[in-house]
Design brief:
The complex is a heterodimer of chains A (about 350) and B (about 80).
Chain A lengths: L25 E6 L8 E10 L10 E6 L2 E3 L7 E3 L6 H18 L20 E8 L8 E5 L8 E3 L1 H11 L5 E6 L8 E3 L2 E2 L5 E6 L2 E6 L2 E3 L1 E6 L7 H4 L2 H10 L24 E2 L6 E4 L4 E5 L13 E4 L26 H15 L2
Parallel strand pairs in A: 3-6, 3-9, 4-7, 9-15
Antiparallel strand pairs in A: 1-2, 2-6, 4-5, 7-8, 10-15, 11-14, 12-13, 16-19, 17-18, 18-19
Helix pairs in contact in A: 1-4
Chain B lengths: L5 H11 L4 H16 L9 H32 L1
Helix pairs in contact in B: 1-3, 2-3
The chains are: A alpha+beta (about 350), B mainly alpha (about 80).
């Protein structure tokens, strides 16, 4: 009779290194009324940064999973997204939330330190919340595909997000909505609708008064894709920081626009102007004059363009609101000077409320 | 709005399969960015309302041209 081979011990996957583990997640089961009156839900919260704990409403960035995906928007066709509650799904979401935090604070060798450059960095709260156990319907759909099937852009569903935040009893300034859609992958954002009836810190832009408001009516929202093997990480390393530029900006007090499109101006765009010849000065903001980017050296303006950008910090690489994945490597992409000044001022206003 | 990768741009243009697809895709993405720069929660004055309606019609038209074929192929491949 052949001898049986002794059983080898089971191989275990190597443990995720400690740096990837935030404080132990807190799970709670809630029964609530509001957005989904008849449903209870489970949630797992990671407190990446608690921010200013002396305040009831510190400047607050929340990362939230998308439960149902509308494909495309306004189709009423909802499919399950990232809400199984499985260990793998929650781990993927935690990794995505960690990526958002690292991207916003310029960790991991990114040149753009963004929030970490603010003297108020320690006052910023960053949490992530994974919710499961809610039904797949419009109430629980925070992200959809923009315009038409195939467009490949994720877009936040503002009303549903606002209702869910009220249901959860949270009022973040910025929400990152993480989708794991198998067919739609590009991030897209909606800026903040400021509460212009309440206070803020006044500023001047080209002689006009604007205001970095303390509060919002709608928080800024960015829909991003979960970290996925299908999307090369080098390409998306700065995506969250780029999208934050949009969502943290304000429709009424300066919208931070993409710099890689040539379109007429709509509303108050803070970092993009239109006209030829390109003037030497871009804008006067809070006293100092910021110059224009005359050449867009990394990739010259196409001859048909009429848009122009502010002076970059690093002219050899695309600015963070420009076609940033083309930076070499993308971690070298940083904000232009005036956009960075705007973001730091707006943070200062938010933390001083 | 995250810029599309060159690979995806080439794929969409190839699958759309008509001569002005590259220009249409550029216009589609620029219109998407423009759409996101207008506050969805405020009542627009009549001229801007008209501009928004025109933009939305154009986006839908370009989207159908560009993605109908591409979308079907992509779904098959995934």
């Amino acid at each position: 009779m052949a001898k049986r081979r002794p059983k080898l011990p089971k191989r275990h996957k190597p443990k995720i290194p400690d740096r990837r583990k935030p404080k132990p997640p807190k799970r709670r089961k809630s029964t609530g009324s509001g957005a989904s009156p008849s449903n209870s839900y489970n949630s797992e919260i990671c407190r990446w940064k608690d921010g200013d704990t002396t305040k009831s409403d510190p400047f607050f960035i929340l990362v939230l999973n998308n439960i149902a995906f509308e494909k495309p928007l306004d189709s009423n066709n909802f499919v399950a997204d990232m809400s199984t509650g499985s260990t793998a799904d929650r781990a993927l979401f935690r990794d995505s939330a960690q990526y958002v935090k690292e991207s916003l604070f310029g960790e991991g060798g990114r040149d753009e330190k963004l929030l970490a450059d603010s003297i108020y960095a320690d006052k910023i709260r960053v949490w992530s919340m994974y919710i499961w156990g809610l039904p797949i319907n419009g109430t629980n759909s925070f992200v959809g595909e923009s315009i038409i099937n195939g467009s490949d852009y994720l877009l936040p569903r503002r009303e549903a997000v606002k209702a869910m935040l009220a249901y959860l009893g949270l009022n973040p300034d910025i929400v990152f909505l993480v989708s794991n859609s198998p067919s739609v992958k590009y991030a897209h954002s909606l800026a903040t609708t400021d509460d212009d009836t309440r206070g803020g810190v006044a500023a001047t832009y080209d002689g006009q008064t604007m205001c970095h408001r303390y509060y919002h009516i709608y928080p800024g929202m960015s829909a991003i894709h979960a970290l996925s093997p299908a999307i090369p990480p080098a390409r998306t390393v700065m995506t969250a920081a780029h999208e934050f530029g949009h969502s943290f900006s304000s429709y009424s007090n300066g919208h931070i626009a993409d710099l890689y499109h040539d379109r007429p101006l709509t509303g108050f765009q803070f970092n993009r102007k239109v006209g030829r010849p390109i003037p030497y000065d871009f804008a006067v903001y809070q006293g100092p004059t910021y110059l224009s980017d005359q050449t867009r050296a990394w990739n010259p303006y196409p001859p048909t363009w009429t848009s122009y950008n502010p002076e970059p910090t690093n002219a050899a690489q695309p600015a963070l609101m420009d076609d940033f994945p083309k930076a070499s490597p993308p971690t070298k992409s940083v904000h232009d000077k005036i956009t960075k000044a705007y973001i730091l001022d707006r943070i200062a206003a938010k933390v001083s409320r | 709005m995250e810029p599309r990768s060159r690979k995806d741009i080439e794929r969409i243009i190839k699958e759309a399969g008509y001569p002005s697809a590259a220009a249409d895709l550029e216009e589609f993405d620029a219109l998407l960015a423009e759409e996101a720069s207008v506050d969805p929660s405020i009542e627009l004055p009549p001229d801007q309302k008209e501009r928004k309606a025109t933009r939305e019609r154009r986006l839908k038209f370009l989207g159908q041209q560009l993605f109908q074929k591409a979308g079907k192929k992509m779904r098959r491949s995934r």
